[in-house]
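Table S2 (continued). Query chain:
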Amino acid sequence: MTHIDPVWKLLITTGFCGGLTTFSTFSLEVVYLLQDGRVVWAITNMLLNLAGSLAMTLLAFMLVRAFYGQ
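Corresponding output:
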């Protein structure tokens, strides 16, 4: 296996683990809402999380293009 720079290793590990815990928290919140019978809130939570994720991804692409002209 090739040597991985410690900085990249930290960034990859942190990003991966951070993504897993964020998704786990999101899933747990939805499950709790469904168990409480709050189906509308669970669906709203899912839709707002999805819309927010897509909006922030789009914003990131726009910022990269604005700053780097790509």
